[in-house]
Amino acid sequence: MIIQIIGLPGAGKTALATALADRINAINFNADEVRADLNSDLGFAPEDRIEQARRMGALARLVSKQGQIVISDFVCPTQQTRVAFGKPDVFIWVDRIKVGRFENTNKIWENPENADLIIADGMTIEEEVALVIKQFELHDWKAPTTLLLGRYQPWHKGHHALLEKAYERTAQVVIGIRDTHGTSEKDPLPYQEVANRIRAEERSSFVVKFPNITNIVYGRDVGYKIEQVELSQELQSISATQKRKELGL
Q1: Given a cut of 90, is residue 69 above it in pLDDT?
Q2: pTM reported for the whole predicted model
Q3: How many contiguous H segments (helices) and E segments (strands) does the chain have?
Q4: For residue 217, what are the contacts with CB-CB under 8 A and spacing of at least 6?
Q5: Least confident of 2-6, 8-12, 104-108, 245-249
Q6: CA angle 105–110–111, rounded 5-degree value
């Protein structure tokens, strides 16, 4: 996912982007930081602003393809620069101020017409972050969460039943996929195929790649508990080996 946050200089884009990145475990590319290094050859002429936007978009797409949520926060003042960036999954306009710090930017600024969310003045950063998470159904890494950990080679009805039990504990569930691909004949599916199968079947897309976890240890008063969920005999008898045979794996 790519989240683009734009607005006039001084509107509070970076404050929102930084706080949001922390809550949803995203990577934030701030234009000032990118300009200071990767794009240090660019100035603020119209053609340079367009190239800056193009590079910001390319950088966001490269990282997003690796399975990361990316936030890109920069002025992106005109329709041309927004086209050069490319279409993000979420487009947010921080509209807290009507005049920015730099006159040259004020002169060329064009209000966007297609923002998915407009952040007006009057909310705290925490309220803005909560609004973004709720409106776009993002996963909140600070919220109480239940972990469902397994190989899922492949995902089947028994796993689905466990997932439903997990939702009885907390409103948010993370499905942790142990990366066991190729470690045995019982693990023919690579992580991405397992993840895609789960996302196609379940309401939760909060799927996270884990190492091949073989042991879990914990100390006292760690703030969570590990529990075994009892399912019906019918569900417990489901064989992943048989499911693999049915799928020709």
Answers
A1: yes
A2: 0.88
A3: 10, 8
A4: none
A5: 245-249
A6: 120
SS (H, E, C) 94-122: EECCCCCCCHHHHHHCCCCCCCCEEEECC
Instruction: Give me 97's structure tokens.
Output: 């101020």
**The pLDDT of residue 146:** 95
- Residue 193: both structure tokens together: 């195929």
> Which uninterrupted H or E stretch holds 233?
helix 233-236
CA pair distance 202, 173, nearest whole angstrom: 11
pLDDT digits (tens, 9 = 90+) for 79-115: 999 999 999 999 999 999 999 888 989 999 999 999 9
Q: Let me know if 219 is exposed, middle or buried by CB neighbors in 10 A (0-12, 13-18, 19+).
A: exposed
Q: Using pLDDT thresholds of 50, 70 and 90, give the confidence band for residue 236.
A: confident
- Compute the distance between CA of residue 133 and CA of residue 161 in angstroms, rounded to an integer: 27
d(CA 47, CA 50): 5
How far are the Cα atoms of 71, 170, 205 from residue 173, in angstroms, in the given order? Answer: 23, 7, 9
Q: Which residues contact 50 (CB under 8 A, 6 or more apart)?
A: 80, 81, 84
